[in-house]
């Protein structure tokens, strides 16, 4: 059952809600604009705030669903539950349906963390917001929040299984933000609220 939960988590994570909402809302492929990403931030700059909010909820929802299904439907222990959550994040980052070219996994990670520990999720959210207000870059705030995640699990004395999850998720996030780091160095990274010309 554990492997079934992991496979289901990956398939859920692979659902490209950013791509779907972009086509339904504005009849565009968001991969052709902005950063070329299917995630929340690129939907925000290419389609608008309301579609991006929908994508945020759906992307977070699939991460939460993977965890909750593993825990309450499959009745699995913490290790398998966490692996199902990681699988959902991996599915978003490397989706089966898009030739393994997906998003950054930030919203899906948020859904997983909310399901695992609402307290940690709240603290991470505050760190993310404060970092965004200071930097004006979603990418910077996301990376700072990702780096804070394992520190929080350690400080709050979670087990080594949870700490391992946090380190892996943090690694995923940083790796997926390498293009953003390159744009930050080059001075071409998009700031929060900056729009993309679709003409």
Overview of the structural elements:
This protein is mostly helical and 199 residues long. It contains ten helices and no strands. Helix 1 (2-13) runs parallel beside helix 5. The longest helix has 25 residues, at 49-73. The radius of gyration is 16 Å and the shape is globular. It starts with a helix and ends in a 13-residue tail after the last helix.
- Ranges with pLDDT <50 over ≥5 residues? none
Strand content: under 5%
Question: What is the arithmetic mean of pLDDT?
Answer: 92
Helical content stands at over 70%
- Coarse shape: globular
The number of helical runs is: 10
Q: Termini distance?
A: 49 Å
Number of strands: 0
Top keywords for this entry?
199 residues, mainly alpha, 10 helices, 0% strand, globular
């Amino acid at each position: 059952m554990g492997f079934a939960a992991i496979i289901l988590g990956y398939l859920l994570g692979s659902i490209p809600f950013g791509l779907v909402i972009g086509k339904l809302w504005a009849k565009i492929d968001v991969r052709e604009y902005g950063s070329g990403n299917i995630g929340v931030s690129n939907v925000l700059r290419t389609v608008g705030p309301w579609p991006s909010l929908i994508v945020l909820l759906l992307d977070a929802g699939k991460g939460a669903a993977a965890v909750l299904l593993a825990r309450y439907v499959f009745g699995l222990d913490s290790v398998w539950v966490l692996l199902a959550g990681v699988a959902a994040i991996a599915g978003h980052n490397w989706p089966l349906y898009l030739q393994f070219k997906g998003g950054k996994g930030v919203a899906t990670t948020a859904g997983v963390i909310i399901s695992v520990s609402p307290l940690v999720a709240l603290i991470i959210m505050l760190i993310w917001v404060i970092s965004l207000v200071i930097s004006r870059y979603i990418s910077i705030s996301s990376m700072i929040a990702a780096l804070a995640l394992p520190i929080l699990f350690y400080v709050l004395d979670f087990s080594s299984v949870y700490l391992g999850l946090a380190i892996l998720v943090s690694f995923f996030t940083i790796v997926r933000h390498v293009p953003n780091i390159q744009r930050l160095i080059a001075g071409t990274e998009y700031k929060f609220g900056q729009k993309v010309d679709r003409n």
